[in-house]
Amino acid sequence: MSGSDAVGAVMKGLEGPLLDELTTFYQDLHRHPELSFAEERTAALAADRLRAAGFEVTTGVGGTGVAGVLRNGEGPTVALRADMDALPVLEATGLPYASTATTRDAEGRQIPLMHACGHDMHVTCLSGAATLLAAGRDRWRGTLVALFQPAEEIAAGAQAMVDDRLFDRIGTPDVVLGQHVFPSPAGTVLVSPGEILATADSIEIRLYGRGGHSSQPERTVDPVVLAAATVMRLQTVVAREVSPFERAVLTVAQIHAGHKENVIADEATITLNIRTFSTDVRRTLLAAIERVVNAEAAASGATRSPEFRTLNSFPLTSNDAAATEKLRDAFAARFGPERVTEMKPLMGSEDFGVFGATAGVPSVFWGLGGADAEVYARAERAGRLAEDVPGNHSPAFAPVILPTLPAGVEALTTAALTWLNTP
Ligand code: ZN
Ligand code: ZN
Question: Which listed ligand is nearest to 180 at the C-alpha?
Fold first, then answer.
């Protein structure tokens, strides 16, 4: 039997009640989003489903991570990965299963929660594929590993799982595979070799001034003016210090200072995020940020040097060329070539690559279309994709369940069976 026959046989399992069950599971996860490293409910549900399917399950890997192993005779070990965390976003999809969940941040403030990046879809699809592959285990040989990873959004969960002896516990896989839902037409998969997602670094910078009365600026060092000058000068870094042939972005996404209109604050905090595909450019950006921030502080007469704190750091996501070609062929055979499109490099970032890089094995990360195909086509014709097809992290991001969910299950199942032995 060839790999694609095995996929067909295994996928038959989705024709029964499983699809309805997965739909309910997805809606439930969507209603109950959890922040990075707080995915306890999600992890418990994922672990339950793996146990029910016959996997050996380890929970609490790197915090809330879950690793399920299904040993099924001689053959390669294939790891499939899904991330579980949600975002502090107020959902505005109007869906009947929209989230109204909230939680408290580190400062005790109430914040909204939403699966605005589709990680609930990733968990559902991996649960579905694990169930199908377990039920169809007479069609393949090898070891299947299902990884439910915490805290992707803060670039910490993959590393936390690896640091918690993940590969000692599950063995070293031969390949690591994962997918992400994007605002592309649902029912399609997007896959390309090489560098597909950027590096990312987030840095918090505290700028120190000297506070005082707003009527007496001469007695102060105004951190608001210092922050404003710093933000503007930082906007010249990509424009003036990075070659136009490179891809880079520097965004100052947060700026905070002061509590009252007649008090000049003591300090200001800015948080910035940089992305690029090149380690050289990354180094240039980091050095320029430090230089500009320190120089602006000196120009303002700040009495204390700014402080820098790295919040998170994502590696480059790069797909192994040979493994990607093998996978693209398998997807084309299963979905038809018209449903397999190129994944253009995105400035977004992922910590998925940590697994393959640490294990020293190839990994492939592909995109799963999640947008209603008609809405997408209409928006594309009208040149209104940005306006009419909400992207990841938008409060309106809402993958259509059909056909996104079954396509995601099928993509993972196909990918796993591309490496597992199919006699
Ligand atoms: Zn995200
Ligand atoms: Zn994501």
Answer: 2
CA 347 to ligand 2 centroid distance, Å:
13
Question: Do residues 291 and 240 lie in contact, with contact meaning Cβ atoms separated by under 8 Å?
Answer: no
Separation between Cα atoms, residue 7 and residue 299, nearest integer Å: 65
Residue-wise pLDDT tens digits, 357-410: 999 999 999 999 999 999 999 999 999 999 999 999 999 999 999 999 999 999
Residue 3 Cα to ligand 1 midpoint, Å, equals 32
Residue 331 CA, ligand 2 centroid: distance in Å = 22
Same-domain pairing of 26 and 167: yes
- For residue 348, the CA-to-ligand 2 centroid distance in Å is 9
What is the spatial distance between Cα 170 and Cα 157, in angstroms, rounded to a whole number? 17
Pairing verdict, β 65-72 and 317-319: unpaired
Residue position matching structure tokens 């590096």: 199
* pTM listed for this prediction: 0.91
Tell me how far the alpha carbon of residue 119 lies from the centroid of ligand 2, in angstroms: 6
227-260 pLDDT per residue, tens: 999 999 999 999 999 999 999 999 999 999 999 9
- Count of domains in the chain? 2
Same domain, 375 and 340: yes
Q: Which residues form the domain of 415?
A: 3-197+316-419
- Any idea which residue has 């993509």 for tokens? 411
Instruction: State the ligand closest to the CA atom of 393.
Output: 1
Structure tokens that stand for 266 in this block: 């003591």
Q: What is the CATH number for 236?
A: 3.30.70.360
Give me the mean pLDDT over the 197-224 stretch: 97
Arithmetic mean of pLDDT over the chain: 96
Give yes or no: residues 297 and 346 share one domain. Answer: no
Ligand closest to CA 394: 1
Distance 141 CA to ligand 2 centre (A): 31
Residues 227 and 182 in one domain: no
Shared domain for 248 and 389, answered yes or no, is no
